[in-house]
Amino acid sequence: MTYIYRDTKITTKSTIPFLIFFLFCFSNLSMATLKHKPVNLVFYVYNLIIIFSSHSSTAELRRLLQPSKTDGTVSFLVIGDWGRRGSYNQSQVALQMGEIGEKLDIDFVISTGDNFYDNGLTSLHDPLFQDSFTNIYTAPSLQKPWYSVLGNHDYRGDVRAQLSPMLRALDNRWVCMRSFIVNAEIVDLFFVDTTPFVDKYFIQPNKHVYDWSGVLPRQTYLNNLLKELDVALRESVAKWKIVIGHHTIKSAGHHGNTIELEKHLLPILQANEVDLYVNGHDHCLEHISSVDR
């Protein structure tokens, strides 16, 4: 079904509830889903290394290097909103991810956040980490780096535990930071911590308790993050620039548009000619592109 939604053309389809994944393949000549590099920003909305823990309100973007294949291509899977101890179709999706990952020889996996339901990890020793991650994604093709950002459900737990490098002692695939950059030669991937942008988590948290350690003072944190992102995007010389966050910017799904990201993040992405914004949060599959293309 296709909708005209404000200034965008939105195509949606039903998917497995709560948990889906998709694949990107990049080469020097083409991308699997886009035959030509778009002039305008394209949103791919999905319902989906070393870890450094940030404990201050600064948001300096750390850089990680991800080698491409010998032919210059990069392939990866993206998943979001997934950590449910195998329920809600998580185990079935993990099986399919393993098969597709092997056929396409993926280089890494991206997680768009809400990694552990319902309330993140309680500590470094929370069995949810292994029950929802290590013991679920067991296929040989998925034994690659998992580059992950935090979602709003993750902020309801012990954020520092999920960001801690000590988790790599349990599973060395796990790479989770608030905001960071992965340089994969042909493509630069910019991971953005979107949860602190959303006003309602601070003003009307309802019964939920959020762990804002490392984020306060909030405005300083957000200003630094936006400044660092803008500079990094302007300096990028990669053929493709992709930004990853948990929250929607525009969406026809349950949560709809995130007005704070429309106001503060979207102008930076447009000014720097970002090719894709990839997110989770809304539990549906959408492909949104500018009608002005």
UniProtKB/TrEMBL annotation:
One of its GO terms (molecular function) is metal ion binding. PANTHER family: PURPLE ACID PHOSPHATASE 3 (PTHR10161:SF36), TARTRATE-RESISTANT ACID PHOSPHATASE TYPE 5 (PTHR10161). Fe cation 2 binds at D114, N152, H246, H281. SUPFAM superfamilies: Metallo-dependent phosphatases. This is Purple acid phosphatase. Gene3D superfamilies: 3.60.21.10. It catalyses: a phosphate monoester + H2O = an alcohol + phosphate. The chain crosses the membrane at residues 15-34, 41-59. Homodimer. Belongs to the metallophosphoesterase superfamily. Purple acid phosphatase family. Fe cation 1 binds at D81, D114, Y117, H283. Its cofactor is Fe cation; Zn(2+). Residues 75-284 form the Calcineurin-like phosphoesterase domain. It is an enzyme of class 3 (hydrolase). Its EC number is 3.1.3.2.
